[in-house]
Write a structure and sequence with these properties.
single chain, 186 residues, alpha+beta, Endonuclease, Chain A, 4-stranded mixed sheet, two-stranded antiparallel sheet, 23% strand, elongated
């Protein structure tokens, strides 16, 4: 290994170790060192992370609970299915206030619902999402659910088939969850 390459690798390791597991990138290191680094890709990566954090903060501060039942604009950054919109509207009609595309760390929750101190992440799994069930999707769901749960969120997943065939039952599930947690905190 040439000395220049070795120094670049050593600096990258000191500034942050990056590993990639499918769609998850975990970086451990010193952001300030990456920001002040002479290595362009480290500076660029740190700037990207900073922009994403600022975007999430801005979106969180702008994201209010919609009062008219209309699904709010997403600025083109989120792919929102018709079934997410359908569930959002049904929950709104039932008097259950929710916040769509709610940022939690690196994730965008499909629909967030708050009851007192309790938090519910409602995910809508699309038709195409479950067409090829080979265990990988289940593993991705498990990994995707893990971090919000660690942060104190309950997670409920509805398939689009559940919403299509029993939308009222899905809304009733959220209402029951809400009543249970409001009793516990109230």
């Amino acid at each position: 290994m040439r000395r220049e390459s070795f120094d670049r690798v050593r600096l990258a390791v000191r500034a942050g170790i990056a590993t990639r597991a499918r769609a998850c990138l975990i970086v451990v290191g010193d952001r300030q060192m990456a920001k002040n680094s002479n290595v362009p890709y480290l500076r660029s990566f740190e700037a990207h992370v900073t922009r994403r954090e600022e975007q999430a903060r801005r979106l969180t501060s702008q994201r209010e609970k919609p009062k008219d039942g209309r699904y709010p604009e997403t600025d083109g950054w989120a792919v929102v299915s018709d079934w997410e919109r359908t569930l959002f509207y049904a929950l709104w009609k039932a008097g259950l206030e929710t916040i769509p595309q709610y940022p939690v760390e690196k994730y965008q929750l499909d629909i967030a619902h708050l009851a007192g101190e309790q938090k519910l992440d409602i995910e809508v799994d699309g038709e195409h999402y479950h067409k090829k069930w080979n265990g990988e999707i289940r593993q991705r769901d498990h990994l995707r659910n893990k971090r919000p749960k660690e942060l104190g969120w309950d997670v409920q997943r509805f398939w689009v088939y559940e919403l299509r065939d029993n939308l009222e039952g899905c809304v009733a599930w959220v209402r029951t969850w809400t009543q249970k947690h409001e009793r516990e905190t109230g």
